[in-house]
Every structure is written in C-alpha cells, then in structure tokens.
Design brief:
5-stranded mixed sheet, 7 strands, mainly alpha, about 5% strand, single chain, two-stranded antiparallel ribbon, globular
Length: about 725
C-alpha cells in the first residue's frame, strides 16, 4: 500500500491523500530512520566532535516531528474517532524514541565529551544553543538517573500520555454534550453567520440519526445529550438551531446576544464542559497533578541538592524568560492592584447602568459583556456590531497581508494548487524583497465539525531536506451561508493578527542552520507569545484600519467618527483581559505547586486561588476542567506557564512603543523586528530582545497603555537553564 506520509515526492504534504491508517506505518518508518542516525553516531570510531556527534544528534527528531506535525493537523483540524484513537500509540512511539536516544549511556557519553569541552572548541552562538538544548533533553529524559529511577520516570511519562488523551477526548465529547437547541425567540442580536452555523449543526445532527449516516455525522449525534436527541427525534425535517459551545464564539455572543436567558445558557454550557458524566475531567486532572509532581521528584534524584526543583512550577519556570516564580509575582504585584481597583469601579458603573436600563436582577458574569457594549454605545457612540460591518473576513486577510508586507518587506501570493486540510483553507507563498522563497502560510479560519475550539498557530512542515516551512494559523469564525458575507468582530480581528504573528515567527525564524532552533521550537511561551502579541497592536491603529476596513455592502471606508468612538471607549473594561490572565495563572500556579497529598479537586483550587475582590467572578476565568492550555499534552509549555500571556504582553507593548515613536512602518525598526523574528530560538530570549531594544524589557509602555502610574520594572533576570552536574 502506498503511504503518502512516506512516499511523497512533493514539496508539500498531500493532506487529501492521508488516511488514519497511514500514521502508524509512517511513525514506525520515522522511528527506524532516527535510530539509524543514533547507531551511526555510536558506531563512529573517531573521537567525539561537534560535527560527528552533535550535528547528527540534532537531526534525530526530524523524521518523527514531520509525522507528528501532519498528525497534529488532523487531530486539531479534521478529527474523528479513528484519528483520536491514534493519539496514544503515536505518542508512546515518540516517547520511546526520546528515551532510546536520551537514555542511551553510550550516546550520552559521546555528547558529554563534547559538552564538557565546549568552551575550547571555538563554537559559535548557535552551536552553543544547540548544545544547551540537547543537554536539557538528556537531563529531562533521565540520563542522570539510576536505571531504577529511569524506569520509574518512563512509567510516569507513559501514564501521562493516557491522562492527556482522556482529558482531550472528554473535552471534545463534552462540548457536544453541552450543546442545546436554540429557540427562535432567543436569536435576537445573533449575527447571520452564527445562525447559519447553528442551522448547519442542527442539520448535521439530524443526518447523524440516520442508519446510513456518515461516520462524522454519526459521531457528532452520538455525543449529544439525551435532551437534545429527544428534541431532534421529534423535529423531523424541520429547520432548527443547535448551539455547540466554543470559547471564542461565546466571548463574541455574550456581548451582542440580546436574550439574557440565551447568554446565561451559553456561559453555563461552556463552564460545564468537562464536568458531567461520562465526560468529567476531574479524574485525569487529579492524576496529572500527581504525576507531574512525581516526575519532578524523580528528576531531582539526579540533581545536586542546591539545584533541586521545589515543585512542578519551579521546574517549569526554570526554562522560561521569567526564570522564577518570584519574577512573575513581582510583575503581578506591580499591576494587579490598580487594575483590580479600576475593574471594581467599572463593574459598579455597569451595575447601575444595567439597572437604569431595565435589568432588575443582579449583574452576573454573562451580563457584563452585553452591558459593556451597551454602555460604550450610549457613552461614546461606539457599536462593535457596526464596526463589524466594515470587517469582512476577505478584507481582514488583505489588511493583514498589506500590513505584514510593508512591515517586513515581504510578498504574499495566494496559491490554490496546494493540498490542504480543508477546502476552506487559503494558502499563500511568501517571498522576501529579493524574490527569495520564505515558505507557505495556511489560513484555516472557519469552525467546522472535527476542528477543536479556540485559535492557534502551528508548523505543518519544517524547513529541512530542501522542503519549505509551512505554518498554519487557525481560527474558529462562524462560516456564513453560501453567498453571505463573513463579518468578523473586533475581538476576532485581534485574534487573527495574533495567530498570524505566530505564523510569521515560524516562517521568518528559520535563519539558523539548525532546525531545532527555528521558530518557536526551543523557547518558552513567555518569549514566543511576544511575536504574536506585538502584531495585535497594529490591527486597530487608525492608519492601518483605514486601509482594510471597508463596508461589506457599499465598500465605503470606515468613518473617522466610528474609529474615534472605538479609541475613546476601548479603555473601559480593558482591565479584564490582564486580570483574566492573572486569575488563570494563579489557578495554574497553585495547581502545579500543591503537594498531591493535599490536592482535593478543581473547585478547591478555584476557591483558594480566587482574586481578593467581590467581583472576581466577573473576570470569567477558565475552569480547570476546560483549561486545555494546561492539559493538552503531558508537559504542555503552558503548564505552570499561563502567566506567559501577560509577561509577553508587557514585552510586546515595549516592542511596539518603538514604532509608536518612530512611525508604524519605520523602515529601520521594521528591519530590526524582522531580525527579532528571524533569530527564532538561535539566541537566548534576553539576547534576542536586547538586540532589538538595546536594553532589557521594561513594563513602562504596558503601564502607559493601561494608565498605571507605578514604578517601572525590568525583566532582566537571565535565562535560567540547567547546568551540568
């Protein structure tokens, strides 16, 4: 049987030809390819050198990563039960390869010989970075441990694969379980494209009832609640609306849906995700809490007493730009109190405003976005729904391309000949100013069955073996009915620019001759989120918005008065976003710092980590049961790392301040920012930032954006990488 994952002569993956049955043979072939490199290193009779040991060692994960990148595309963007069932066997094969390589004593001895002599070998900065990253791989894989401790570590890692698989499977199934039928009386204020998506969900559920239903339709129907199924069985062929919870869609609808009962239902449906049998996530969360702490305890057995990790939080932060919990807490201490005080005042303003406008019941979390929108409209004349009429998705795409082209001096050309994961995907070839080929960007923007919720960016193919890098940015916009416009709300535009920023980092950050240092692959998220968050800041600058915001009917440019109204109103309730990160991060840190013997349940973590404010619930933090940033993989970079969004945001504000001073498209600063992206992970995080700014990061620009008048703090703590024992 021909396998397009193994026998693909094309420059790009053939997504349309790939089937679930292709992955296991392909992963076995990748394993054999990698082990052949290992054998070549070990069988070399020459003394270990960077060239005969480190460079081939850096290549050992490439084949496996290539298969996992394609699998990730299906798992996240086009999933099915057959794809989900592959998660555990594929993950175990990848883990086996990691252990075979980094627990091999003979290979470790050759590596250590080069590593110990590194300061005498005349290595450049990139080579030193490769050595440090590989050293971390050896240590974290258990090379420094006894055989018995290695065996225990391996058992822990294998178990965590199962827990994460259970968590993500429950999350996907529970989303459908929380779906509900929407009455026509509840649809006031809901955009046409969202209603079209809800009609499509309803039609798919009806189709899934048929004895001859397609697998995807059948799976969709079977995961629905009994209540919804009963309704569908009596619906016949009539049309209806079926709402399936998705975080970003709910964030939008809470602000514009006029029916309060509908807002309450979507809010509760989202927060019930992963909480009810048979899809409760309490069990896998408890086990991940225990096993992550156990993993750190085992690793400590191979470390000197004065270098041991206190807990999983300490372990995770040791690899970040922040470097320590103390540094993160210093940032929180600097901004939390003034943000929270103002948020409390604004919630009081909304409470009074809602009461004046007919809401007799107390303000609830699902009311806050709606009354925020109403207050902004009455006070400043700003209406996000009106602005959305100027934000048709095609224009947003063109706007970003125009922006990125000028900022980085690059060129986009759409190419419809590539095989993509879905027909909805737009693919672009990207070139530099001299016509040199950079790579391919996939834009996968619309929600569909089998695609996970949220927004993210990833690499489908690395720039190796003469093949181009392929990055994909993913959103979950409601897909409009045929012939209807796809209007995007302002929050979704910000998300679009954010994810596109990640993709640009993956595309431009390939200058290093070592692919393990490309893009985002070897740095923590408190650095790699900066490249995305700085792009957000261009999205609604007047100069940029005027370029792409055109009315979907008339083509008229967005009025200056509407832009002005947005600018005047945008600070109101803006504090909620950084407070959300702080609240989520405190849950994250407490969870990953608690002794397993004292861990009770997710509700206990929520209560103990709650911000000290009577309006804390209005921030709408993520329950751990649906907090997939933390539990999507055994050692997720966001586990004890969710604070990264705030750390990176302060740095992104700092980066953007240079453009605010010099000009949004200042040529010299654009060149410097492209260099910032091009470095990828070839330098330490602080070196890369300092090369752009000429100094350490400062919170001054962030505090200015939020009107916080506290002394500036600098995140000047150096990278805290493990040192050889």
């Amino acid at each position: 049987m021909s396998n397009p994952l193994i026998d693909n002569p094309n420059q790009t993956p053939d997504f349309q030809a790939v089937k679930p049955e292709h992955f296991l043979p392909a992963i076995d072939a990748a394993y054999d390819e990698s082990m052949a490199i290992v054998d070549e290193i070990k069988n070399c009779d020459d003394l270990p050198t960077f060239e005969n040991t480190i460079e081939p060692l850096e290549k050992t994960s490439r084949a496996m990563s290539r298969i996992f990148s394609i699998y990730g595309a299906f798992y996240s963007n086009k999933s099915s039960k057959a794809i989900e069932d592959l998660y555990t066997p594929l993950s175990r094969k990848a883990q086996k390869l990691t252990k075979e390589i980094f627990q091999d004593d003979a290979l470790a001895a050759r590596f250590k010989s080069v590593y110990d002599a590194r300061d005498t070998l005349g290595l450049d900065d990139e080579q030193m970075r490769v050595l440090q990253e590989l050293y971390s791989e050896f240590e974290e894989s258990g090379t420094l441990l006894s055989p018995a401790d290695r065996e225990e570590l391996n058992a822990v890692d294998e178990a965590m694969i199962d827990f994460c698989a259970q968590y993500t499977t429950n999350l996907a199934a529970s989303t459908n379980q929380q779906a509900f039928i929407v009455s026509p009386t509840e649809t006031a204020g809901i955009p046409e494209d969202t209603l079209a998506s809800m009609e499509e969900n309803f039609a798919q559920a009806i189709a899934g009832m048929s004895p001859n239903a397609k697998d995807a339709d059948k799976e969709f129907y079977e995961e629905l609640s009994d209540e919804v199924k009963q309704h569908l069985q009596t619906a016949g062929s009539t049309k209806g609306y079926l709402f399936v919870p998705e975080r970003l869609a709910i964030d939008t609808l809470l602000g514009i849906a006029e029916d309060r009962s509908f807002r309450e239902k979507i809010f509760n449906a989202l927060n019930k995700t992963g909480t009810e049998a048979p899809y409760t996530n309490e069990a896998p969360i408890r086990l991940l809490q225990e096993y992550r702490q156990k993993r750190v305890e085992i690793l400590n057995r191979g470390r000197p007493q004065n270098e041991q990790y206190k807990d999983y939080t300490d372990y995770a932060l040791s690899k970040t730009m922040a470097g320590s919990l103390a540094a993160v807490e210093a940032l929180f201490d600097e901004i939390e109190a003034p943000l929270l005080k103002r948020f409390e005042e604004e919630i009081q303003t909304l409470t009074e405003f809602a009461a004046e406008n007919g809401q007799n019941d107390p303000l609830e979390p699902w009311d806050v976005p709606f009354w925020t929108e109403r207050y902004k409209k009455e006070t400043w004349g700003y209406d996000s729904k009106e602005l959305s009429e100027y934000l048709e998705v095609g224009n947003v795409i063109e706007g970003f391309i125009d922006h990125a082209s000028e900022l980085f001096n690059i060129r986009f050309e759409e190419n419809k000949n590539y095989s993509t994961i879905s027909d909805d995907v737009h693919a672009f070839d990207i070139y530099d100013d001299k016509g040199g080929y950079i790579g391919i960007l996939h834009m996968d923007l619309f929600a569909r069955t089998g695609k996970r919720g949220g927004a993210w960016a990833t690499t489908y193919q690395s720039a190796t073996a003469g093949k181009p890098v392929i990055s994909a940015m993913n959103c979950n916009l409601p897909k409009p009915a045929a012939g209807k416009p796809a209007l995007v709300d302002p929050v979704q535009v910000t998300t679009f620019f954010h994810e596109a920023g990640h993709s640009l980092n993956m595309l431009l950050g390939t200058r290093s001759r070592y692919p393990m240092l490309h893009g985002t692959s070897a740095h923590a998220s408190d650095f790699t989120e900066q490249q995305a968050m700085v792009q957000e800041r261009w999205a609604f600058e007047r100069e940029v918005l005027k370029r792409y915001a055109k009315h979907y009917k008339t083509g008229a440019a967005v009025p200056d008065a509407l832009i002005e109204a947005k600018l005047e109103s945008e600070s109101f309730m803006a504090d909620r976003q950084p407070l959300l990160i702080i609240q989520n991060a405190r849950r994250d840190f407490l969870f990953h710092s608690t002794n397993p013997s004292r861990y009770r349940n997710t509700a206990d973590i929520h209560e103990k980590a709650k911000l000290d404010s009577p309006v804390a619930d209005m921030i709408r933090p993520y329950p751990l049961t649906r907090f997939d940033h933390l539990f999507s993989s055994p050692q997720s970079s966001y586990a004890a790392g969710y604070y990264s969004y705030l750390w990176a945001d302060t740095c992104a504000a700092d980066l953007f301040s240079f453009f605010k001073d010099a000009g949004l498209y200042d040529t010299a600063r654009g060149v410097a920012l492209r260099e910032f992206y091009a470095d990828g992970c070839a330098r330490t995080t602080h070196e890369t930032f300092n090369r752009f700014a000429g100094r350490a990061p400062s919170t001054s620009a962030f505090r200015k954006e939020y009107g916080i008048d506290t002394p500036a703090a600098h995140s000047s703590e150096p990278d805290n990488k493990p040192k050889p024992s």
